[in-house]
Design a protein that fits this description.
heterodimer; A: about 375 residues; alpha+beta; B: about 500 residues; four-stranded antiparallel β-sheet; 20 strands
């Protein structure tokens, strides 16, 4: 049954998906696929589903004798590295307003902006055959084949630079016990103004051990040469990959992650979408900043010190000039924030409850307004 | 791979330590004859751990970040199980355990950044051992400083000191009025022959804990004190511990753990010696000579050269007011020979010969500060006169201490001439990373039968000894080199041909 579906694949360029995952799984049937390179293209544009697909292939496919290239594109998202701090990397407030989600991948490295104009490539191989330079040669080779004379070079940090200083690709990797994957981006026609505005952190005063991103000037390949569209690059990459890694005679196989044959991808995608993974997995950090408070013409600053572990506030200290606000309410607000998630919706709920509790006391309208302002600024911090 | 090799070696060491602990069990305590010794089992002394160190996950990796521990303390680990995730160089790598055992203590928590290679990140114990009793190694003494100046810094202490192991209740303790020792402390003091009265107790109710015993052993009153390091330019190794200069002499009969040092102002007691303060240069020379002699396999070959032709040439040149020395001819001959035999013009690159593309000869100059070797660059392309002038200038600058670093660093071959001191022949120590050094003696007159065996003639013979790095220039190659050198010296006009 498996062999027949493989023959179907060979005969037509269409994908017969139910046979494909079985063929890739260890257990013998995968050995029927001759050649050692295989190119897959994901039909999903959901970043979480694609990340889950990546993990699924890494965990479930026998990569000892075969290498796989997965090509995927997402709708707009910001993807941070495994050990990074999203508050430090991007403008979370703007992202929430524009509906751009933040995702955390399992490999290391820095933050990238994904959108349909940004092509993602994941090179799967056994841990022994893990060779990032070889993979990047496939990419630079493909680009040179499409546009001879283009100046693309891989650096020793495994970035790809166009014309010597524009970064068009960044790399990250994950090495498991027996298999490894190396993925990189390729900027074809991404929305650069959106990229620039989203990758601008707004929460200042963060001290953390998280991996920092190295900002670099970027350029789209399509701006350099209009013929370099994501589609043409995809086709050329597939050709180059199969030339380098051996081809099984199979064309690029489209893959739909939501296919039930990929057991468990939906659950994995949901876990990757959850707040506990995207924000909660941040290594412990502290925030030391000042809030600008205003009440009509008068102004004051409050100093804030927060310690956040696993995305939840572990310690909070608020200091406001006593003539602006008495010491009691800020201390009570700080106490209420303990244990809450470092996230605006939850902080807003806490602030709401706090204001209601305080409002019951003998506080004047002015004080109430100032307290409200303090709460708003605290929430805006997150 | 590297981690498994390390842990394998640690496994052997752990086994040996275990034996040592067993041996120490039966010693009695001589100064407390009334105390009853109880049966000590190794478990009371803490379990010797299997060390888990930060592995090299790629050839260029220097440090990593611990992203996540995949096993908890007390959890069983099988060889090949994933222990933790480490981020390095934009890759998150799963580190596997290479041993079976139980994860006993995590020393570097999640989120620890910039952990250098080889740092202890966790401790494991063998299966069946009590992982709660694992011995946490004390903080390491800071290593000898590199050339850059370092502030006295203490390595982050791995874990809080282990509380003294619980004493079994049925024990008849030593008279509590005098001394209270924890079993581990007693074992340590026992096996090193130290007086427990010298230890400062820090445990509850005057208990001498294991840490106090270890401190007494080290000879420092405060644990973890960093030793401030020597001058920036000299990579000198500071002494491992500084003995108190005015401390009381060790009690007779007890093994002293500090070597005796003469104290200024006191007349020299028997067995003491005077320390001459060593200058920076001497210290570096001492270190490099030791490094050379101990790490490079020296091979020696000597040959006698007939210096008649050179002497004659020198005399002829002197008549034309050109002053050159025999040594200049030797330098030229060596350079020319190196040009003819480039396989001798190599350095050791770590695991094999590295051919050099230019011939720079270092000449040894004796200065009052020590022996310095300034370099004559591209000696093969220079004439003897030019070599002479350069050598004179360099020697003068060396004596004045005005040499630039590029004038004495580098070089492919060294020549040391002690002929003017009346030495007939000697062997020199190679200057790493060079491959050879030529030791030139003085010329002496010898009577030899002439070519036709009928008469005797006087020959001016000069012995040269080549010390070569046996890995790069073996005896056969050295012999060929010396043959050619001799040919060049005995027929100086050959040198013009090359």
């Amino acid at each position: 049954m498996v062999l027949r579906s493989l023959c179907v694949l060979r005969a037509q360029a269409a994908a017969s998906l139910s046979g494909l995952p079985a063929a890739l799984l260890p257990g013998g049937s995968g050995l029927d696929l001759p050649g050692s390179g295989l190119v897959l293209r994901s039909l999903s544009t959901d970043v979480f589903q694609n990340l889950a697909l990546e993990d699924w292939i890494h965990d479930n496919v026998d990569l000892q004798s075969r290498s796989i290239l997965l090509l995927w594109r997402n709708s707009a998202a910001v993807v941070v590295g495994r050990h990074q701090n999203p508050w430090q990397e991007c403008d979370l407030r703007l992202m929430r307003r524009s509906g751009v989600p933040v995702a955390r991948r399992r490999s290391g490295g820095g933050t990238v902006f994904h959108d349909p104009g940004n092509l993602n490539l994941t090179f799967f191989s056994s841990r022994k055959n893990y060779d990032r330079a070889r993979n990047l040669r496939v990419v630079t080779g493909a680009l040179r084949a499409l546009r001879p004379g283009i100046d693309v070079r891989a650096t020793d940090r495994f970035d790809i630079l166009l014309d010597g200083h524009y970064k068009i690709s960044g790399t990250a990797a994950k090495l498991g016990r027996t298999a490894a994957y190396h993925h990189c981006t390729l900027l074809c026609s991404a929305d650069r103004p959106l990229l620039a505005s989203l990758l601008r952190p707004t929460c200042h005063g963060i001290h953390s051990n998280a991996t920092a991103s190295l900002p670099a000037p970027v350029q789209n390949l399509m701006d350099h040469d209009p013929s370099l569209t994501p589609e043409s690059i995809t086709r050329q990459l597939a050709q180059q990959y199969l030339a380098e890694f051996g081809s099984g005679g199979l064309p690029v196989v489209p893959v739909q992650p939501s296919d039930p044959a990929f057991g468990g991808i939906d659950r994995a995608a949901a876990a990757l979408r959850g707040w506990d993974w995207t924000h909660g997995r941040t290594p412990r950090f502290s925030v030391d900043t000042a809030l600008e408070l205003a009440d009509g013409a008068a102004a004051a600053t409050a100093s804030v010190h927060l310690e956040v572990k696993a995305g939840r506030v572990e310690a909070c200290r608020l200091a406001v000039a006593p003539e602006w606000l008495p010491g009691g309410p800020p201390a009570r607000l700080a106490a209420r924030l303990l244990g809450a998630r470092f996230c605006p919706s939850e902080a807003a709920a806490v602030a709401e409850a706090f204001l209601r509790a305080e409002g019951g006391g003998a506080t004047g309208a002015r004080l109430g307004a100032r307290l409200g302002d303090l709460c708003d600024k605290m929430v805006a911090l997150m | 791979m590297a981690a498994s090799l390390q842990l394998g070696r640690q496994g052997i060491l752990f086994g040996l330590r275990f034996n040592l602990i067993k041996q120490c069990q039966r010693t009695t305590t001589p100064w407390l004859p009334h105390a009853r010794t109880f049966h000590r089992c190794p478990a009371l002394l803490g379990v010797a751990p299997l060390k888990v160190e930060m592995p090299a996950l790629s050839p260029t990796m220097e440090e990593g970040t611990i992203v996540k521990w995949l096993k908890k303390e007390g959890e069983e680990v099988a060889a090949g199980d994933a222990l933790c995730e480490i981020e390095t160089d934009k890759a998150v790598v799963t580190m596997e355990s290479s041993d079976d055992g139980v994860l006993a203590k995590i020393l570097m928590e999640e989120g620890s950044r910039g952990v250098p290679l080889g740092t202890l990140i966790a401790l494991m114990v063998e299966e069946g051992e009590d992982w709660k009793q694992v011995e946490v190694p004390p903080p390491k003494a800071p290593p000898a400083a590199p050339a850059a100046a370092v502030a006295a810094s203490v390595a982050p202490p791995p874990a809080p000191a282990q509380p003294p192991p619980p004493r079994p209740p049925a024990v008849h303790t030593i008279s509590s009025a005098l001394l209270r020792l924890s079993p581990a402390a007693r074992n340590i003091l026992d096996s090193h022959g130290l007086d427990p009265r010298l230890a400062t107790p820090t445990g509850p109710r005057g208990l001498i804990t294991k840490e106090d015993a270890l401190n007494l052993l080290k000879g420092t009153p405060s644990s973890g004190a960093a030793v401030p390091v020597a001058a920036p330019t000299a990579p000198a190794a500071p002494p491992a511990y500084t003995p108190a200069p005015a401390g009381p002499p060790p009690a007779p009969g007890l093994r002293p753990n500090i070597p005796p040092l003469s104290i200024p102002g006191k007349p020299g007691a028997p067995g003491t010696f005077t320390d001459l303060p060593a200058s920076n240069i001497r210290r570096i020379i001492a270190q490099r000579l030791t490094e050379s002699k101990t790490t490079i396999p020296h091979a020696y070959a000597s040959v006698d050269c007939d210096m008649e032709a050179v002497m004659k040439l020198r005399k002829d040149l002197a008549k034309e007011q050109v002053k050159v020395s025999v040594n200049d001819f030797v330098i030229k001959a060596a350079a020319v020979t190196l040009k003819e035999m480039p396989e001798v013009n190599v350095t050791w690159s770590g695991d094999g010969p590295l051919a050099l593309d230019s011939i720079h000869i270092s000449i040894a100059v004796a200065t009052e500060k020590g022996l310095i070797t300034p370099i004559i660059r591209d000696a093969a392309d220079m004439g003897v006169q030019e070599i002479s002038a350069t050598a004179k200038a360099l020697a003068q600058r060396a004596r004045d201490g005005k040499l630039k670093p590029e004038e004495y660093q580098g070089g492919s071959f060294s020549i040391s001439n002690l002929g003017m001191f009346g030495i007939s022949g000697f062997s020199a120590v190679i200057n790493p990373p060079q491959a050879c050094i030529l030791a030139v003696g003085g010329s002496r007159a010898e009577l030899r039968p002439s070519a036709d065996q009928q008469t005797l003639r006087t020959q001016q013979l000069m012995t040269v000894t080549l010390s070569s790095d046996g890995r790069l220039v073996d005896d056969a190659l050295a012999s060929r080199f010396l043959e050619k050198l001799r040919a060049n010296l005995e027929k100086p006009q050959r040198m013009a041909l090359v």
